[in-house]
Amino acid sequence: MRLRAYAALLLFLSACATSAPSPAERASRNPRIANLQRAAVLPWTDGGRCVVREASQPWPLLVEKCYRTLDHDRIEFHDTTGRCTVASADAAAVGLGFCVLAAPEIAVGAVVVLGVVVVGVAIKEALDAYELRHASPEEAGTSRGTKVASREAEAQRKPKLKPEPAGQDWQPPVPPVPVDRTGRASCEPVPVPHAGEDVPHNECADKFPPNRYPGMDVLVNGIRFDALQVGVRVLWEIKTHRFDTYNGFIREQEIEKEIVQLAKERDAALACGYDFVVGVSTDAHRLALLKQEPTFKIVVTGCKR
């Protein structure tokens, strides 16, 4: 209730402090789109789904609804105007970050985002849909024609080396690995859809650490990890196969393969300042890995298949 009362106060202040826009500005300024554009520069743990759902609300109310879905590890709030500090009791009740972000206008330097923001999938889709709906027929036709022409030209320049896969053989393309200015793989975590359709494995990766990006893997330093833990810089590799049911020979083969994989993932994580943890379903699996490499951090998740 205090959040709602504080949001109402900010709405009242914005009505008093903001000059009335001209008719032309009112016609060209869509509040929903303005909110989406404002939110697009912020990191969201849910891909912006909450923002899209609440985008028609005034900005302070949107912030009230969706503040919890912000990636707070990547945002710093600074009360550059002193208004939130003056509010004292109210600011303490709702939090300085909420007060700064929900203000009628965000002062320069008040919200600092760490790292590069990848626009939330849901926000981008909503903005693209709005742009397409409001383009003139000529613009829309030109845009579609340009895209078609570009695809045809690209197809002519690049002859097919092999037939296109179909049906169950098709796999989604892996996005290009982000690189920094030196051309090396980036340490910036980039959420990407889970690589496989192993539902029990994906559920374990989302719930056990828990995953900062539910439903997503994360690319770091050119390596795909199963999860980035909420609130800390810890990357996870999750194993859910039924190791205990394998015979001795298969167990040995599996452990040798996993040791190579996990060592590579740990090196990539540590090089970017992340810790690395392996989650396995059983204690037998944990002990078998530690026997070969006792320096691994391994926990038993108990996740079932």
UniProtKB/TrEMBL annotation:
Name of one Pfam family that matches: DUF6310
Stretches the record annotates as Disordered: 137-175
Signal peptide: 1-20
Keyword Signal: yes
Residues in DUF6310 domain copies: 180-303
Compositionally skewed regions (Basic and acidic residues) per UniProt: 149-163
PROSITE patterns: PROKAR_LIPOPROTEIN
Keywords: Signal
Record InterPro entries: DUF6310 (IPR046277)
Protein name: DUF6310 domain-containing protein
The organism of origin for this protein: Corallococcus sicarius
Classification of source organism: Bacteria, Pseudomonadati, Myxococcota, Myxococcia, Myxococcales
